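Hello Y.,

Per our agreement to keep a running log of every chain we model this quarter, I'm adding this entry. I've kept the format consistent with earlier entries: sequence first, then predicted structure.
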Amino acid sequence: MSELLEPILERQGDREPELGIVMPIRNSQSRIVAAVRSVLEQRDCVADILISDDQSTDRTLAGARHAIEGWRGPHRVRLFRTTRRLAIDHLPTLVAASSQAFLVQAHGDDEQLPGRAATQRDVRRHSGASLVSCVAFQVRGERVRREILPPAVSEGFLAPAQLAGGTPIHMLSGSRLALDRRLYDAFPPLDSQYLSIGHDMLKSWRALLLGGIWIGAEPLLAVHWHDQQWSNRLWDTRRPESTLFASMLHRLAMLRALQRDIAHVEAAGTVPAERLAEVRRLSQNVWHQAVDRLLDAREVLHRQGLEPAWTDLDDLAELKRRAQPQPRG
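Predicted structure for the entry above:
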C-alpha cells in the first residue's frame, strides 16, 4: 500500500470483487454519509471499494467512517486518509492502490443510483469501451434537473470527431466516469507532474487511442453543484472572454500532454497505426483551433483595457463574489 494512504477501517467482502470503486473525498461533511451509503448499496455486482479522505478540515472522515461501520454487505470496503494533501494526485493514488481492471469513480458530494456500477460494468463487457460515462441528475440547492445528451450525441460510442468538436466537458468528467485502468497503466504516470490539471479530459483522449468512449443516456447518479468545485473556482468567469482565455490555455496544456502520450504508445507499439494517425490529426486540429480562440479572447480583453493576470484561487473566488449581483434589501 502506498505510503500516501493511512488505513483507517476495512470491511471484508464475501466474494471476489469484479470491479473497483475509487472515491476520493474532502470537506463534504453535509453529504458524505449519503454519498458513501450510495456506494455501499451498489447492487448486482461485487466491488472493491476504496474511500480516502484528503486531509479534510471538517468531519468528512468521521461521517464516512460512521456510514461504513453500520453497514454489512458483499463488497470489500477500505477507508483511508492521506498522509499529506494530495489534491489532484488523490485519484491516481487510489487507482494505483486498486487491483481491479475496471474502475468506477465516485465523489464525496455525489450520490450513485443503486445499479450504476453494474450498468457501467455491463457496458464495458459488451462494448469494449475504455471509458464509460453517463448523464446525471444535476442538483443545485432545491432544484433537480435531468441532463440530456447534446443534440449531436446519441447513446453509444462517441465519435472521435465529436470529442474534438467540443462535447460538453461535464459529460466526460468526475464521478460520471468508469474506466479501464489501462488509461493509467498503458501511458506515462498521470499525476500533477505530468499535467497539473485536466486529467479527465486527457483520459478521454487516451480512451480514443484504446477502446473508445461510450456515453449512456440514462442518469446513473446525482451530481451536486457548489461553489467549491474546480470548474467553479479555476477560471475568471466575470467575462466570457476571460473564461475562454483560461479554458483554451487549459486545453493547450492537456494537448501537449497528449502529444507525449501518443509518442509513448507509438514507441511501445500498443496502438494500431491508423488509430494513432487519426487521434494525432484530430488533436493537431484542436490545437490550432485553441490557439486561435485564445488569441481572439486576448485581443478582446486588450481592447477593453484588460490584461490577463495570475492570482491564487482564494483571491479569484473573492473577486468573483464581489462581481455577483447583490440581492435587494
